[in-house]
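Sanity check

After download, print the first record. It should look like this:
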Amino acid sequence: MARVVEGMRIEKLNLVIKELVKEKDEEKERFNRINAGLLAEKEKDKVDKDAMLQIEAMLTATVRR
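Expected C-alpha cells:
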C-alpha cells in the first residue's frame, strides 16, 4: 500500500515538473519573440537614421550650391 501511495506521489510530482517545464518553455519562447521584435525595431531605427543622414547630406550639398 505504501508503495502505491509513493508511486502516486511520484506520478503527481512528475506531472507538476512537466507543467513547470512547459511553462518555462512558453515563457522562454515569449521572451524570444519580444527580443526578435526589439532587434527588428533596432534595425529599422538604424535604416531610418541612415536615410536621415543621406537626406541631410543632400540638403547640405544643395544649400552650399
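If your output differs, re-run the checksum step. Summary of this record's structure: The chain has a mean pLDDT of 95.
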